[in-house]
Write a structure and sequence with these properties.
Blueprint lengths: L9 H11 L8 H12 L4 H11 L3 H10 L11 E6 L2 H5 L2 H12 L12 E6 L11 E3 L2 E3 L7 H7 L15
Helix pairs in contact: 2-3, 3-4
Bound molecules: FE2/S2 (inorganic) cluster (FES).
The site of FE2/S2 (inorganic) cluster (FES) has 12 residues, from helix 5.
């Protein structure tokens, strides 16, 4: 068989082959996509096309399934992942304004990555540190009692320069 692999690693290709050896192998599409996202942090078009070929599922269906589920992402995560908790405890203490400030400084909306690949912005439901609300996570570091006025200072810790005009990366 001719190789059409655009870059999926051998373990994922083997997993797909294993799935396709079962009855209704195509029903393993979501676990396959999850495995790819776990490994790469997002689903690229090339990887989805490869899944389409290996699983003999039309590309439009693979894309359709992936876009239906909110947990799939189609842009690479930034070097620094900013997550603003929007759970109840954080929200009532002003997480919305904190999120707006991050969004304004970075020039992107939640779910997007800056064009230089440095920052991505996300929301979470509860980061499990409600006593510290409002909570922001940057990579693995937790910031508690964050006020809108703290946002620029936090971003600067990760090399953000206010003068740089950031543009969002387009999503699928
Ligand atoms: S609601 Fe934000 S940490 Fe729990």
């Amino acid at each position: 068989m001719t190789s059409t692999h655009a870059g999926l690693p051998a373990d994922i290709i083997n997993y797909i082959k294993e799935c396709m050896g079962n009855r209704h192998g195509e029903s393993y599409l979501i676990p396959v996509l999850q495995k790819i996202q776990n490994q790469f942090g997002y689903l690229s078009k090339a990887h989805m096309d490869e899944v389409s070929q290996l699983m003999q599922i039309p590309a439009v269906k693979v894309t359709g399934v992936a876009t239906f589920y909110h947990f799939f992402s189609f842009v690479p995560k930034g070097q620094h992942r900013v997550t603003v908790c929007m759970g109840t405890a954080c929200f009532v203490r002003g997480a919305g304004q904190v999120l707006t400030r991050f969004s304004e400084f970075l020039g992107i909306n939640p779910g997007q990555t800056t064009s230089d690949g440095k920052f991505s912005l996300e929301c979470a439901r509860c980061l499990g540190a409600c006593a510290l609300a409002p909570v922001v996570l940057v990579n693995d570091r937790v910031y508690g009692a964050v006020q809108p006025g703290d946002v620029l200072k936090i971003l600067k810790e990760y090399g953000f320069e206010k003068a740089v005009q950031q543009k969002p990366v387009r999503q699928l």
